[in-house]
Amino acid sequence: MASSNSSSFPHGARDGIFLKAQEPAPLRCKPVQSLPDVCPKEPTGEGRGLCAGPSVVPEHDRWTVYSSKVNLPAALNDPRLAKRESDFFTKTWGLDFAEAEVMPSFCLPNITREHFGLYVQEMLQRERIHERCKTICPIKEDVDAISSMTTNHDKPRAELEKVPKIFMKPDFALEDPATFNAVLPWSHFNSAGGKSSRDVSSSKLLQEKMSHYLDVVEVSIAQQISLRSEAFFHAMSSQHELQDRLQETQCAVAVLRSRTTAIDRVMCQGPLQALRIALTRSNCVKLHNKLKLMAAVHQTQPTVQLLLSTSEFVGALELISTTKEVLQQELQGIHSFRHLGSQLCELEKLIDKMMVEDFSMYVRGDMSRSLREEPQVLEKERLESLVFGLLRQRKLDFLDTYSDEIMVSAKAIVAQCVAEALVHIEGIDSEVVTKFAEQMRVMTFPQWFQLLKNIFESFLLFLQRIKATLNIIRNVVLEVQLSGQKRVPGDLGSESQTRESQAHSPLLLQGEAELAYLTHEGLFISDALNEVQQQVRDHNQDPVTSSRGQQSQAEALGCDSTSEVVETPVGREPSLMPGETTMPTELELKRIMTNIQDLLYSASDISHDRCVKVLTARAKDGSLERLSAAEFVCLSQVVEAFAKDTDELCGRHSVSLRGALQSQANRFVHRFHDERKNKLSLLLDNERWKQAEVPAEFQDLVNSIADGRITLPERKIPDLEERKPAEFLLVDGQKYAVVGTVLLLIRIFLEYCQCVNDIPSIATDMLTRLSDLLKHFNSRSCQLVLGAGALQVVGLKTITTKNLALASRCLQLVVHYIPIIRAHFETKLQSKQFSILRHFDHITKDYNDHIAEVSAKLVAIMDSLFEKVLSKYEVKAPMPSLCFRNVCKQMAKMHEAIYELLPEEQTQMLFLRINGSFKMHLKRQLARLGVINDGGPQHGLVVVDVAFYTENIQGLKSLEHLDLNMAEIWEQKR
C-alpha cells in the first residue's frame, strides 16, 4: 500500500502540505543526550556502507536502517497518538524523543509574542470583518461538501442505529447469562420435545440477522477508514522524506568526524602538551614558594618567644596576625600545620593577658613614684607600644584600669601628705590618734592650712602627670585613626630600613616581602635576598626567561598580571593587612577619645572630692565656722586658686570643692552675721544717745570711703603725736553729730563689703545679712528712742529733744551710705541677681520714714507745750505776758538743743513747722477770748506779745531771716 502510492507524492518537497509543520522549540536549554542504540546490528542486504570516520556518538555498535525491527504498519497502527507521523520514533525510543529540546541559536534574536503585537493589532479588525462575512455568506463548495457528507453519513448511521444497543455497551460479555439470553433468545424456538423445522428456520434467521449487523458495522468501519486515508498517505510520504534526511545527516556527520580528528591531531595535541608542561613548571614554582613559606611559618613561634622576651608585644602580634593570614590563605589544608592556628590563637590570648597585666604594672609604677620626680611620663616608648597593642587587640577597657589606679592614688596622696605633716608637728601622737580626720582636727589652723596647701600642690602635680600620660595615649589613638596603615612608627625599624634599601629591585615580590617580614630578626632574610639578587642577574641576562619566571611567580602568588607584582613597593608592609580587620572602628576610636577626655575630667573631680573630704573632716567640729574673717578669706582664696588651676589644666569646671567651700562660707556668713548683729544689739542696748567724739581712725575710714575704697584700711602704726578726736564726723563737707554705735556700724558694714571682696561667691548671702543688720539697727533705734525703750534699758530719765535730734542725724548718716553700699554690691552680682538689690530701696524708705517720725515727734513735743501754755493765756497787762515769755524760753531751749546737731536747713524747716503749730493754737485761743483785729486795747496788747515772740525767735541763730508770718493769727473781719 505504501509502495503503490509513493509515486504520487514528491519526495523532495519541503514547502508542500505533505510536511509536518515543526512547532517552535522552547527556549529552555537542556544538555544534548546521545540516542541509545536499541536495535541490534543485522547484516545489510545491499552494499551501502557508512563513512569510517570518528563518531560523535558512542561507537560500540554502528546502526543502520536495517537495524530497525519496527515496520511501517506497526508504526501507522499505533492507536496512542492522533498524529501518526511522529510514531516512528516514539514507538521504540519513547515519547521523549519527539519532545527533545533543541539548543536555540545564539545568532538569532529571541522572538516573543510582543514582536507580533503591532501586526496583530493591524490585522484584528480585518479578521473580525472576515469572520463576519463567513458567517453571513458561507462558501458554496463548503456547503455542498457538508450536504453531501451529511447525506452519505445519514444512511449508514440509520442502519447502524438498527443494531441493538447491547452490542455497543462497554461491559458486553456473552458469559453473562443475561447478556447471552438477550443476544440468543433460545426460549422462542426451543420446544418441549426437541428440534422442529420452525426452530431451524429461526436459527438461520438469527444467523442472518447477526451477519447483517456485522456487515453494517464493517461498512461503517470501512467508511471511517476511508475518511482517514489522507493521514495514511501523509505518513508514507513523511517516512520517505525522513529516510532521505537521515542519509544526508549521516554524510554530514561523517565529514564532521574526519575534520575533527584532523584538527585534534594537528592543532590541539601539541599546544596542549606545551600548556601541560608550563602548568607543571608553574606548579613546581608554587610548590617551592609554599615550601619556603612553610619554612618561614615554622619559625613563627620561636620568633614570637624572642619578641615577647623583649616586651615587643606589637611585633609579636603583627607576626602572629600575618602567620594566621598566611595559614588561612596560602597554607590552608596543610596537614602539618593543622594545630598551628589554634596554638597561635592561644598565644595571642596569652599576649593579651600579658599586655593587660603589663599595662596595670606600668600604671601602678607610674602612680606610685614621687610626684616631683621627673619626667612626667614614665617610659614613653613602652606606654605607646602597650597602648597600640591594646588597641590592635580591641582591649578597649584599659582606661578603666587607669581610672581605678587614679582613685587609689588620690587616696594615697592625702594619706601621704597627712603623714608628712604629722612628722613636723609635735604634740600629736599618730599611734593614739589613728584616723586622718581626727588628726586634722587636732591641728591648729595654721598647721592644717599648710597641710591643705600641700595637698593642693600635690594634686596639681598629680593632674599634670595624668594629663601628660593621657596626651601620649591620645596621640597614639589619633595616629591609629589618621594613619592608613594603623601602625605605630618605630616598630621593626631596622627591618623596614633593610627592605627599603632593596626598593630598587624590580623582582622583589610581595611574597618575598612577606617572607622577609615573617622571618623577623634576620633568620631567613639573607637567603631570601640572595635569591632575589640571583633572579635580578638572570633577568638582566635573559629577558625572555626572566619575564616567564616573573609570570610564573605571579601565578604562584595568585596575581592577575606581572605588572601588578612589579609595581608593588618593597616598603609596603603586608603584615598590616590582617591587622586592619582587628583595629577598632572609627566610631570606637572616637569613643576612646571621648573616654580619654572624660578620664581627665574624672581625675579632676576625684581630686576635688578628696579635697572636700579634707575640708569636711576639719569642719566636722565647727572649727571652720569659728575662723576669723581674715583666716576664712585666706582659706577661700587658696581653694579658689586651686579650683582655677584645675579648671585651666583639665578644662573642667569642678563644683564639688566650690560647693563645699560655699557651704562652709554660708555657715561662716551665718556666724559672722550673728556675731555682728549681737554686737550691734549690745551696743544699742548700752547706748545713752549722747553725742560721741569721733576718733581719727574713723574719720580716716570715712575719708577712704569718699575716695571710693569700700574696704577696711590696713592698720597703721600709731604716730608719736596722737591725733585728738573730733567733735563731729565730716562726710562730704557736712558735719554729723553721731553716737558711738553708728561709728561701729560703719565699720561693721565695711567688714561685710570686705568679705564680699574676698569671697565673691557669698555676695548674695552677705547682702541679705547686711540688709537684715540695717533693718535691725533701724527698728531697734526706733524702739529705744521713739518708743522710749532706752528709759528701761539704759535707765535714762527722759527722751530729750537732743536725743531725738541725735538719733535723726545718725539715721541720716546711714541713709547717706546706703547707695554707696548698693553700688558696691552691684559690682559683685551677676545681672540675673540684681533683683535682690531692691532690699536697699526698702531699707532707704524705712529710714526716711523713721527720720520723718523723729521730726514729727519734735514738733509734737512743742505742740503739746503750746496747747498747755496758751490755754491759760489772757490779754491783760503787763506786757509781754508771762505766757509768751515761757513760749519763747522753751523755743530757745529747743533751738539750743538741736542747733549744733541738725543742719541749718533742717533747723529752719523744723522751726517753721513749730511756728505753724504755735500760730494755730494762738489763733484758737484768741478766737475763744473774742479778740479781733479791731485796733482796740486788747488787739494792741496781743500785738505787743506777738512782736515780742517774733523778736525772740528771729534772734536765734540761723533763724534771722525766717518768715514767721504772724498776721495769720487774726480772723478776717466780718
UniProtKB/TrEMBL annotation:
Biased composition (Polar residues): 542-565
Pfam families, per database record: Vps54
Domain Vacuolar protein sorting-associated protein 54 C-terminal as annotated: residue spans: 734-863
Example of a GO cellular component annotation carried by this entry: cytosol
Keywords for the protein's UniProt record, in alphabetical order: Coiled coil, Golgi apparatus, Phosphoprotein, Protein transport, Transport
Biological process (GO), any one: retrograde transport, endosome to Golgi
Compartments in which it is found: Golgi apparatus, trans-Golgi network
Entry GO MF terms: syntaxin binding
Region Disordered: start-end pairs: 536-581
Subunit and interaction comment: Component of the Golgi-associated retrograde protein (GARP) complex, also called VFT (VPS fifty-three) complex, composed of VPS51, VPS52, VPS53 and VPS54. EIPR1 interacts with GARP complex and mediates its recruitment to the trans-Golgi network. Interacts with VPS51 in an EIPR1-independent manner.
Biological role stated in the UniProt entry: Acts as a component of the GARP complex that is involved in retrograde transport from early and late endosomes to the trans-Golgi network (TGN). The GARP complex is required for the maintenance of the cycling of mannose 6-phosphate receptors between the TGN and endosomes, this cycling is necessary for proper lysosomal sorting of acid hydrolases such as CTSD. Within the GARP complex, required to tether the complex to the TGN. Not involved in endocytic recycling.
PANTHER family xref list: VACUOLAR PROTEIN SORTING 54, VACUOLAR PROTEIN SORTING-ASSOCIATED PROTEIN 54
Protein family per UniProt: Belongs to the VPS54 family.
Name under which the protein is recorded: Vacuolar protein sorting-associated protein 54
Source organism of the structure: Takifugu rubripes (Japanese pufferfish)
Lineage: Eukaryota, Metazoa, Chordata, Craniata, Vertebrata
Gene that produces this protein: vps54
